[in-house]
Design goal:
By secondary structure, this protein is of the alpha/beta class. The chain is elongated. The chain starts with 8 loop residues before the first strand and ends with a strand.
Length: 369
C-alpha cells in the first residue's frame, strides 16, 4: 500500500472487494457491463475498470465522451458504451476510438453516419428506448423505424438496444414490471423484423438482485460492484461488501470549557467541559457542511459538532475514546468492530450514497489495495 504519512485525508479502495462483488454478477448467464461513470462513483475510473474486467466484466459503461476517452488512453480495449448524450460534433472522436454511442433520434443516426465516414470506421450504436423513465430515449413506437434506418445505412451498426428502470430499488415492483413489459414488446417487434441486435439490456444492480428474468443479454452493474445499497429498502444481501474507506488525520485534541463556542459562528457550545478532536477534512474534500454526521475514532462513534469548515471538522469525543494527533478517523468504513457506511452518512446529510462517494473531491488521494 502507498505511504499515507503525508496525507491529511485519503480514500482507500479495496480492489479485491470490488472484484469479489462483481464476480457475484459475472456468474450469471448475461454478460456484465461495469458502470464506471463519474470517476467510478468516486472510486477511480481506470483502476476500477481494470479490476472489473479482471473479475469478468465484458463492457464498461460511462456517461460522457471524456470518461470513455480516459479509459481508452489508459489502454483499455474493452467495449465501452456512452450511456448519455454526446454532441454530434464529437461523434467522430468516439467512433475513431471504437466507442459505442447511444442514440434515440433519426437526426442522431444521420449525424453518426456522417461522423463514421469522417472517422473511417463504422458507428456502433445502441438505441435507447424510453420505457417509462421519461428522460432520454425514443418512444416505443419509434424504435423499429430507427432500427431500420440504422440497418439500412452503410457506416452504422445497430449494436444494442436498451432502456433504464426508474423505480427498480423501490418496494412497489409494478413500475419496473410495466417498463419490462414495454421493453419486451419492442424486442419482439425487432425480432419479428430480423433487427434484434446482439446486446439488449435493461437491468441495473437493483433489477439484477430482484428479477433475474430481466437480465437479457447484458446487465449494467454500478452500485453492486462498489458494495453500496441500491436503496433503504433493498439490501445487497450477503457476499457484497463496500469497497471504499474514507479516512482523515486527527490534528489536535483539546478540552473545551463549558459554554465556549466551537468553530465558525459558535453554533455549538458544550454544556460541560468536553474533549474535542479536530480532524483534517472539510467541505473542500467533499465532507458536507451539514449537521448530524458521525465519525469513528478509536472504534467509537463521535458526533460532528460545530460548523464544518473547508478543511476541518470538530468532533465531540465520547467516553472511552482515546486518540492523539496523527491518529486515523474513519468517515466511511470500519474501525475495530464499528462501521460507518456511506448510507449512514447519506442519511445524516439528507442525500443518497451515490452522491456521498461521487462528492469526494479530487484533492482526496485514492489509494488502491
Amino acid at each position: 500500500m502507498p505511504q499515507i504519512e503525508g496525507y491529511a485525508t485519503w480514500a482507500e479502495v479495496d480492489l479485491g472487494a470490488l472484484r469479489a462483488n462483481l464476480r457475484q454478477f459475472a456468474r450469471r448467464q448475461a454478460a456484465v457491463m461495469a458502470v464506471v461513470k463519474a470517476n467510478a462513483y468516486g472510486h477511480g475510473a481506470v483502476p476500477v475498470a481494470r479490476a472489473a474486467l479482471q473479475a469478468g466484466a465484458l463492457w464498461c459503461g460511462v456517461a460522457r465522451l471524456d470518461e470513455a476517452l480516459e479509459l481508452r488512453r489508459a489502454g483499455l480495449a474493452c467495449p465501452i458504451l456512452i450511456l448519455g448524450a454526446v454532441p454530434p460534433s464529437a461523434y467522430a472522436a468516439a467512433i475513431a476510438d471504437a466507442i459505442s454511442l447511444t442514440v434515440w433520434t433519426s437526426e442522431q443516426v444521420a449525424a453518426a453516419v456522417a461522423a463514421a465516414q469522417q472517422a473511417g470506421r463504422s458507428a456502433r450504436l445502441h438505441l435507447k428506448l424510453d420505457s417509462g423513465m421519461h428522460r432520454l430515449g425514443a418512444a416505443p413506437e419509434d424504435v423499429l423505424g430507427l432500427a431500420r434506418q440504422i440497418h439500412d445505412t452503410e457506416g452504422a451498426e445497430l449494436e444494442g438496444v436498451f432502456s433504464h428502470l426508474a423505480c427498480a430499488p423501490d418496494l412497489d415492483p409494478n413500475p419496473s414490471l410495466k417498463q419490462q413489459h414495454i421493453f419486451q414488446q419492442v424486442l419482439g417487434e425487432l425480432s419479428a423484423a430480423g433487427l434484434r441486435p446482439t446486446w439488449c439490456h435493461l437491468a441495473n444492480t437493483a433489477a439484477a438482485l430482484r428479477w433475474p428474468e430481466m437480465d437479457c443479454d447484458l446487465v449494467r452493474i454500478g452500485l453492486g460492484m462498489y458494495g453500496m445499497q441500491p436503496s433503504e429498502v433493498l439490501d445487497l444481501g450477503p457476499g457484497l461488501h463496500p469497497a471504499l474507506t474514507w479516512k482523515a488525520r486527527i490534528a489536535q485534541v483539546k478540552v473545551v470549557a463549558s459554554g465556549e463556542g466551537i468553530g465558525y459562528g459558535h453554533i455549538y457550545a458544550p454544556g460541560r467541559d468536553e474533549t474535542i478532536a479536530t480532524v483534517s477534512v472539510g467541505y473542500g474534500d467533499g465532507y458536507r457542511r451539514r449537521p448530524g454526521a458521525q465519525v469513528l475514532i478509536d472504534g467509537h462513534t463521535a458526533d460532528v459538532v460545530g460548523r464544518v469548515s473547508m478543511d476541518q471538522i470538530t468532533l465531540r469525543l465520547p467516553e472511552g475514546a482515546q486518540c492523539r494527533p496523527g491518529d486515523e478517523a474513519v468517515l466511511i468504513g470500519r474501525q475495530g468492530q464499528a462501521e460507518a457506511r456511506a448510507e449512514t452518512l447519506a442519511a445524516a446529510w439528507g442525500t443518497i450514497n451515490y452522491e456521498v462517494t461521487c462528492g469526494i473531491s479530487a484533492r482526496v488521494p485514492r489509494l488502491y489495495l
